[in-house]
Amino acid sequence: MIQTIEKHQQDFDARIGASTSLDELKQMRIEFLGKKGCVSQFMKDLRSAPPEEKPALGKHINELKEHIERLLTEKTEELEKKSAGASGAVAGFDASLPGKKEIAGSTHPITEMLDEITSIFFSLGFQVEEGPEIETDYYNFEALNIPKDHPARDMQDTFYIEEEVVLRTHTSPVQIHVMEKQKPPLRIIAPGKVYRCDSDISHTPMFHQIEGLMVDENISFSHLKGVIQIFLHQVFGEKTEVRFRPSFFPFTCPSAEVDIQCVICSGKGCRVCSNSGWLEILGAGMVDPAVFKSVDYDPERWTGFAFGLGIERIAMLKYGINDIRLFFENDLRFLKQF
Ligand code: FA5
Question: How far is the CA of 77 from the centre of ligand 1 (A)?
């Protein structure tokens, strides 16, 4: 039996030396180590061998088994390395599979609109300022001439964090922060997020505004009209219909709301413009003397205008979007179009 074992080992050594594929190795593993393979057969034969020969035979069979296992493992690793080297890949990597496409990110349409508007005002000499999104009641309302019991608070449905702390409902409080720090003349815009308890086809609870403020000697309403007109014509084109409508804001006097003809229905009236043919995009006016007093500016010497515009509304009009909520649903099919 020892001779037969040795014969099988020689046979195995010759075959493994000549083997060139992983399939051949699999086949040899079955033939030599499988249930019906020669090692199993030797184990069965061992049971009927004379007891005095059993230890030596057992040792030979185990050595053959270990030899086969070791050489099969070594040869498998060698062939795997070779095939990986040939395909330029690593083990377990299938070079024939189609590649995964890298998805490149792009700027959100609201960010693009913000950048575009900011650069228009920048070209008109306005500097960019920022303010906090969590505001005190004082900056969001009181310093802007909206006392606690004033009905104008109803115009901006407010998220209160504490009694005196709110999520800012508009970017107008940045006016106060800037005027407290800087002396006139000044010309600033303040872009950022604002929050109101609002949600429908043209309102979202979070949206973006850009505040504008210009203060100098002899600033008049015609300066305001000129700046707004230049801005809207740059965004929507020279032929765009714009209208100034008298309005009320406690922090400006006189005040106006500016509408632009609805681009969804070309002024005929639709769901988006509530059948009016116009969409309101900004509020504006001459800075109220009460606001100047709250920041220690002399209202006899300085005059100024301020405006606050809704970025999403402008983006809706520019791109012909009929539901503001699409901007925030993160649907890539929508976002990829910009
Ligand atoms: C204001 O917020 C004033 N602070 C604007 C202002 C600034 C007036 C300086 C005078 C001087 P109003 O509430 O109208 O005004 O909002 C301004 C713009 O924000 C609106 O014209 C509209 O375009 C947009 N807007 C208002 N509420 C929402 C909302 N929930 N979702 C999206 N856009 C909105």
Answer: 69
Q: Is 29 helix (H, G, I), strand (E, B) or coil?
A: helix
Rounded distance from Cα 210 to ligand 1 centre (Å) = 9
* Superfamily of domain covering 109-335: Bira Bifunctional Protein; Domain 2 (3.30.930.10)
pLDDT along the chain (338 residues), means of 10: 88 91 91 89 86 86 92 90 67 78 88 96 96 98 94 90 96 98 97 95 94 98 96 90 94 96 84 86 96 97 97 90 92 89
Give the residue whose CA is nearest to atom 30 of ligand 1.
203
Longest dimension (CA), the chain: 124
* pTM higher than 0.85: no
Q: How far apart are the first and last CA of the chain?
A: 81
Nearest CA among 46, 35, 33 for reference residue 4: 46
For a substitution probing ligand 1, which of 249, 292, 326 has the most ligand atoms within 8 Å of its CB?
Answer: 249
